[in-house]
């Protein structure tokens, strides 16, 4: 095998190894790993953002579109503020009942 071909094959193999190792540790984002179960959705009031219901479950916001359930991996400011406000309200209510 000539030297240029050997070098090209080694370079391509190294690149393939680098790309595959970078992608191996990342979960696929086509569908969320953990969906809010039907019992959760039936008993939890959703938060509305852009006219669509969102559910806070497992440290992510979930919503449903025509393709199925989706997760937001970057929390919009409006939903973050809503979640923080609701969390503070529940803590206050819990202490107020004592």
Describe the structure.
This protein is α+β, with helices and mostly antiparallel strands and 98 residues long. It has a domain at 29-96. Helix content is 49%, strand content 20%. It has helices at residues 3-24, 38-43, 77-96; strands spanning 47-49, 52-57, 60-65, 68-72. The protein has a four-stranded antiparallel β-sheet with strand order 1-2-3-4, covered by helices on one side. The longest helix has 22 residues, at 3-24.
Radius of gyration: 23 Å
Task: Please provide the ordered H/E string of secondary-structure elements.
Answer: HHEEEEH
Q: Can you tell me the overall shape? A: elongated
Count of helical segments?
3
Mean pLDDT across residues: 76
Using DSSP, what is the number of strands?
4
Low-confidence stretches: none
List keywords for this structure.
single chain; 3 helices; 98 residues; alpha+beta; elongated; four-stranded antiparallel sheet; 49% helix
């Amino acid at each position: 095998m000539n030297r240029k071909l050997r070098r090209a094959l080694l370079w391509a193999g190294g690149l393939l190894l680098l790309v595959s190792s970078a992608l191996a540790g990342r979960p696929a984002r086509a569908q969320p790993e953990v969906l809010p179960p039907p019992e959760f959705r039936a008993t939890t009031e959703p938060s509305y953002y852009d006219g669509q219901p969102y559910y806070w479950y497992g440290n992510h916001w979930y919503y449903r579109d025509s393709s199925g359930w989706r997760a937001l991996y970057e929390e919009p400011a409006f939903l973050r503020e809503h979640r923080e406000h609701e969390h503070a309200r529940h803590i206050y209510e819990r202490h107020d009942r004592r």
